[in-house]
């Protein structure tokens, strides 16, 4: 294999990257990013890999969720905090149900670049470049907003840094303490059936803690009760940004991606000869790969050889996103081929991206029941093949949006316009997310 360098991807075909009109200003930005501190450090990256190794052995479950795309405008404490608290709630539901540790990874603090199926968008007879995420251009439909602007890379870095600062405080500064479990529920969720079910669970947890403490258990000596580990991830799409944040660890003598704990390859950029695979093969982070319905067993094995030649535990997360109508047919042959090759990646289910439809009134949406269906067929395929269904990858927000149909709130087409805020894909809202966790918990228990 030819030698890897942080810029060796530049010799490969790179899909989904913008053409910057002004190359010198892009280079200036890249140099500034190279000089800025790492956002994530090697020790934390290794720690996530150890946690994922436990998932690959069937000893833990991965919960990876957050926005389809974060936005510079909607940035602030509330969106981050509400997403964080819903992921915590879902993790508690699953930990309680399956009595198994949950590895929590946000699609957050760097999820700013979007692959698009078309390079342009036409509206009212005007054709403009597609919106590619806030790290590249603006979502507003105007020629100025849609122009790729390298200064946005620096903004993405600084938004990621502040989001991380907040996440680290939330995870370690007392908010995530299990004694505070009653404070995690947002008001609009509290009034829903899932909210009530969660409050019952929270009561049981509070009683168990009180019981153990009455028996002499010293909770102050159990750090697991007071803080959580929370990791970040995003799609490694914008390679100029990722290269500028690649850092060399002198101690381990390895390169790592310092923009997130985990990076993933999208369904549209996983060509074995492509630039994205080339970049990811050289860094030491946990790496995800989206696997859609067109993937053949040999494609998956080839990618595994390229990205994980040493077969290291916790290195690879294969994220199946087949669609509810295809998963039962397409997933089992892949599970079988990977098992027969003696490989044990983490297998994770993304029940969102194969189930996107357009509503009668023109919104991009997803049906809650289809999401659940793909999830349960994913579990069934693993049961059939004797492999471990290791996790869930999903798009959500803690806020009370109306973007996906169905759920206990029975959201209909007509109600999508009430609070449809996503500039990209439709997300589950706080109560739909919690409902998903309870439904998965029911499957895990049975
Ligand atoms: C995504 O995760 O937002 C995404 C675009 O997924 P995929 O690459 O699976 O289509
Ligand atoms: Mn998406």
UniProtKB/TrEMBL annotation:
Entry-linked InterPro entries: Aldolase_TIM (IPR013785), DAHP_synth_2 (IPR002480)
Presence of keyword Manganese: yes
Keyword tags: Cadmium, Cobalt, Manganese, Transferase
UniProt-annotated binding residues for Mn(2+): 68, 353, 395, 425
Catalysis performed (reactions): D-erythrose 4-phosphate + phosphoenolpyruvate + H2O = 7-phospho-2-dehydro-3-deoxy-D-arabino-heptonate + phosphate
Cofactor dependency: Mn(2+); Co(2+); Cd(2+)
GO molecular function: 3-deoxy-7-phosphoheptulonate synthase activity
Cofactor remark from the record: Binds 1 divalent cation per subunit. The enzyme is active with manganese, cobalt or cadmium ions.
Highest rank taxon of the organism: Bacteria
Amino-acid positions noted as binding phosphoenolpyruvate in the UniProt annotation, renumbered to this chain: 107, 267-268, 290, 321
Gene3D superfamilies: Aldolase class I (3.20.20.70)
A Pfam family: DAHP_synth_2
Statement: the UniProt record of this protein carries the keyword Cell membrane: no
Gene Ontology biological-process entries: aromatic amino acid family biosynthetic process
Assigned EC number: 2.5.1.54
Stretches assigned to coiled coil: none
Catalytic class of the enzyme: transferase
Family classification: Belongs to the class-II DAHP synthase family.
Name of the protein: Phospho-2-dehydro-3-deoxyheptonate aldolase
Lineage, opening ranks: Bacteria, Pseudomonadati, Pseudomonadota, Betaproteobacteria, Burkholderiales
